[in-house]
Design a protein that fits this description.
Elements lengths: L2 E6 L7 H16 L3 E6 L5 H12 L5 H25 L4 E4 L6 E3 L8 E4 L2 H8 L3 E5 L2 E3 L5 E3 L5 H11 L4 E6 L20 E3 H9 L7 H10 L3 E5 L7 E4 L12 E5 L3 E9 L4 H11 L7 E3 L6 E8 L4 H10 L1 H4 L4 E4 L2 E7 L9 H11 L6 E5 L2 E7 L3 H12 L2
Parallel strand pairs: 1-2, 1-9, 2-6, 3-6, 9-11, 10-12
Antiparallel strand pairs: 4-5, 7-8, 11-12, 13-18, 14-16, 14-17, 15-16, 18-20, 19-20
This protein binds aspartic acid (ASP) and magnesium ion (MG).
Magnesium ion (MG) binds next to loops.
Length: 402
């Protein structure tokens, strides 16, 4: 008898029919002789609706009260799913995050799990009951309710799978798995059979919103294999694991677009030691994340510094740089918000040459200008005009994936 963790996202439990659909999937797994722990998110857009409700009351809700409010969404789901399971003859117990033993640090609205006491879950399993746990929530040392950040139910599921050494951790969603590109935009996008944790992390941070980033980090840390599958269509999904079989011709696993980016340039900065430190030290101090950095070679006694920041931080970054400009000098500070980052990800590029040039050729054929380039072991990113982003993704995707 194996222990299986099954997580269902908001769209999978959106209404009565979807809840019974989930109950039937769980029943099947349980009837096959497995112990099952189910983790659920809030129904449909409930979390967004709750956020909107708070906004009707105040512009500045306390984080503590926000967590109190948002946690209620998952509590509705667990109770309804437990009732549905009972209705179809499966004994089930719903547990809130804290009943299930989730303890977290104090950071309301993006708390980290510090401990998971599994006694209650285990005692319910020992009574042959299916346990339905509210994702996304825990309790801090003040015994206040905390939430784990948007999409945090994935992390709850992985944490349970790790703590109970589950045989499998299945993440059910409304897509059939992880794709090589957004299938709604790129018709040739293919579903991947397997992807590594590292590739998944890169894709997740690049805006492929299948799995929450932290959940993948946690899965990697504890070696929990994840299976991303559809709750609506019973076909094989995508396995996320440490190492995958190198598929013939599969040099890259995905192309992703990120429009949450802006480019800032500081022109004519003195070409002398310590300049990069002065500029980026300042931004780090102000908690602004800098991603791609480009420094021109010196002309005369000056050089240009160009870098990207998250779009929502762009104005703040420029303001700070102008305020402290006397520290590093330089001339004009410009910002370009009409850009996008397009990236390819694949562990295969470590052992193959020519991956970058294939990407650049695809862009060149479409006459798309590259503003910045950055590479890591398993990723190549370019910054281009935002208007070209979708065309770029398609062209690059077609160049690699046939
Ligand atoms: N309900 C929460 C959210 O929408 C958590 C989750 O769905 O995982 O972000
Ligand atoms: Mg949700």
């Amino acid at each position: 008898m194996a222990l299986i963790v099954q997580k269902f996202g908001g769209s999978s439990v959106a209404d009565r029919d979807r809840i019974f659909n989930v109950a039937n999937i769980v029943k099947k797994t349980h009837d096959a002789g497995n112990d099952v722990v189910v983790v659920v998110s809030a129904q449909g857009d409930t979390t967004d609706d709750l956020i909107a409700k708070a906004a009707e009351i105040t512009k500045n809700p306390s984080h503590r009260e926000m967590d109190m409010l948002l946690a209620s969404g998952e509590e509705i789901s667990i109770a309804l799913l437990a009732m549905a399971l009972t209705e179809i003859g499966v004994q089930a117990t719903s547990l809130t995050g804290w009943q299930a033993g989730f303890r977290t640090d104090r950071t309301y609205s993006s708390a980290r799990i510090t401990r998971l006491d599994t006694e209650r879950i285990e005692s319910e399993l020992n009574r042959n009951r299916v346990v339905v746990v509210a994702g996304f929530q825990g309790l801090n040392r003040l015994d206040d309710i905390t939430t784990l950040g948007r999409g945090g139910s994935d992390t709850s599921a992985v944490a349970i799978a790790a703590a109970l050494r589950a045989e499998r951790c299945q993440i059910f969603t409304d897509v059939e798995g992880v794709y090589t590109a957004d299938p709604r935009k790129v018709p040739g996008a293919r579903k991947l059979a397997e992807i590594t944790f590292d590739e998944m992390l890169e894709l997740a941070s690049l805006g492929a919103q299948v799995l929450n980033n932290r959940s993948v980090e946690l899965a990697k840390k504890y070696g929990v294999e994840l299976e991303v599958i559809s709750s609506l269509n019973p076909v094989p999904g995508t396995i996320v694991k440490e190492k995958t079989k190198e598929m013939e011709g599969m040099l890259i696993k995905g192309v992703a677009k990120d429009t949450n980016v802006a480019v800032i340039s500081i022109l004519e900065v003195p070409d002398e030691p310590g300049m990069a430190f002065k500029v980026f030290g300042l931004l780090a101090q102000k908690h602004i994340n800098v991603d791609i950095i480009l420094q021109s070679t010196g002309r005369g006694n000056n050089k240009d510094l160009t870098f990207t920041v998250p779009l929502e931080d762009a104005d703040k970054a420029v303001e700070i740089l102008k305020e402290y400009q006397s520290r590093f000098g330089g001339d004009e500070i410009t910002v370009n918000k009409d850009v996008a980052k397009v990236s390819i990800v694949g562990a295969g590029m470590q052992s193959h040459s020519g991956v970058a040039s294939t990407m650049f050729e695809a862009l060149s054929e479409k006459n798309i200008n590259i503003k910045m380039i950055s590479t890591s072991e398993i990723k190549i990113s370019v910054i281009i005009d935002r208007d070209n982003a979708d065309r770029a993704v398609s062209a690059i995707h077609d160049a690699f994936i046939h």
